[in-house]
Design goal:
Helix content: 55-70%
Largest sheet: 3 strands, antiparallel
Strand content: 5-15%
Mean pLDDT: 92
Number of helices: 6
Structural class: alpha+beta
Distance between the termini: 35 Å
Low-confidence stretches: none
Shape: elongated
Number of strands: 3
Length: 112
């Protein structure tokens, strides 16, 4: 569970930045070279590479170097961590609201 939490924390930290979210969104359309990705953002290539390294170190993207071109690929399995966490939170809150609804609407529930 601690390992899961550390991975989840890293994913949320990585996605807290709008540039990194935009990169993830762009890579959702398919693999793209770092150069093509960097052209879409008003920053220097070294600054952009920091975002790429953050995404890569948190497992959200993989990069493959072929010759002089480094290509980024989205790791969709890593995004499943967020999906799983949100589904768990949704289930917890739905159970709580269901119990509250039963308490308010069911007179038998109020006697306990």
């Amino acid at each position: 569970m601690a390992q899961y939490s550390a991975h989840l924390d890293g994913v949320f930290v990585a996605l807290a930045d709008p540039t990194r979210r935009a990169v993830v969104r762009r890579l959702g359309h398919g693999p793209t070279s770092v150069g093509d990705l960097a052209r879409e953002f008003p920053m220097t290539l070294p600054s952009f590479m920091k975002h790429v390294r953050t995404l890569e170190s948190n497992g959200l993207i993989r990069t493959v170097k072929s010759g002089r071109v480094r290509t980024c690929v989205l790791n969709r399995e890593r995004l499943a961590l967020i999906d799983d966490w949100l589904a768990e939170q949704r289930r917890i809150w739905e159970e709580r609201t269901d119990r509250l609804e039963r308490f308010v609407t069911d007179p038998k529930e109020n006697r306990q």
